[in-house]
Amino acid sequence: GSSLWAQRPSACAAARSPRPPVLQSLAGMGPKKAAPKKVTYDYSGLKEGMRVQAESEGAFYAAEVVQVSTSKNHVKAPVKITFKGYDSIYDEWVNGDRLRSKALKTVVPESEKKPPLEFNFGYWKIRGLGAVFRMIFEYKGVKYTDNLYEDPDKWFKEDKPKILEKNVLANLPYVECGNDCVCQTNACLSYLGNKLRLSGGGYKARLMNEQLLCEIYDVRNTLIGLSYPFKTVCRGQEEFDEKVKKEFDEGKVFTKFEECLKKSGTDYFVGKTPCTADFHIWEMLDQWKMLAEKQGRPDMFEEHKIPLCKAFYDRFRALPSLQKYFQSDAYKFPVNNPGANAYFV
């Protein structure tokens, strides 16, 4: 007759062949494996009668929870299980290492928990480039300090020397997190994209996001060139008005971005959710829209025939996590620096 042993769950009934002599002689010569990391389990989700998988001799089998004990006698193996289809003589007390169940959770020790990300950000007290970063921080709900520079001496004489000690490329904006100090706008945005998972899902998406960051910076440079007298593109308000009119008459500022949305077929420029480029593109759409209104132009989106950009603009503006920002004083900051006699503020 069959023995009780034959009825016990087993990974394989076939006999295993002995290890070859050469391998046997070398078995103890390899590098020592690191001790497995101890895992702490939360058994509170396991209930009597719950179906689980339990390990026996290296394989997992269908089983059912009989009891979950809080007794000190069972602290090392607090869950009693019975294997489905086997006699109760094979019931066992097991721990989490030998169980598989969605109801079984692991507990992360306090010492291993990563502290939440916290950023230190610096930029002028204007929207400019700063708005892009403030929106990103608000969208992700991370803690950040917004160092607003209004007095040039505060930056150039007090804080810039401190940043220079950490980064020889010190400039505004800057982003600090832990031991990292990053300067230069697109480098900062790439850094945040990696830290906050806003760079795009997959190689092609990340590549497109980087290209869009560069492309929208060109759009910003056009606006900056027009807006500030020190750029010498416009030598007075009248020349500014003339050149802005020409830009709007040509209607090509956002043509490439309309084509990007048409080709991607997604709600945002590189996917279903915003990436870093989306924040800068939206800010530029908003600034150019404001400029068009100040110049008494028709609706920019209709005049330039960019309906997909309009849909993106509205969709982004309605994001719940950004409503606090849009209601804040930061959104009402001047677009450009009045102290530099900008034509468009």
TrEMBL record:
Residues 202-338 form the GST C-terminal domain. Belongs to the GST superfamily. Mu family. The keyword Zinc does not apply. It catalyses: RX + glutathione = an S-substituted glutathione + a halide anion + H(+). Its EC number is 2.5.1.18. One of its GO terms (biological process) is glutathione metabolic process. InterPro entries: Chromo-like_dom_sf, Glutathione-S-Trfase_C-like, Glutathione-S-Trfase_C_sf, Glutathione_S-Trfase, Glutathione_S-Trfase_N, GST_C, GST_superfamily, Thioredoxin-like_sf. This is glutathione transferase. The lineage of its organism: Eukaryota, Sar, Alveolata, Dinophyceae, Gonyaulacales. It comes from the Eukaryota. Residues 117-200 form the GST N-terminal domain. Conjugation of reduced glutathione to a wide number of exogenous and endogenous hydrophobic electrophiles. One of its GO terms (molecular function) is glutathione transferase activity. The keyword Nucleotide-binding does not apply. It is an enzyme of class 2 (transferase). Keywords: Transferase.
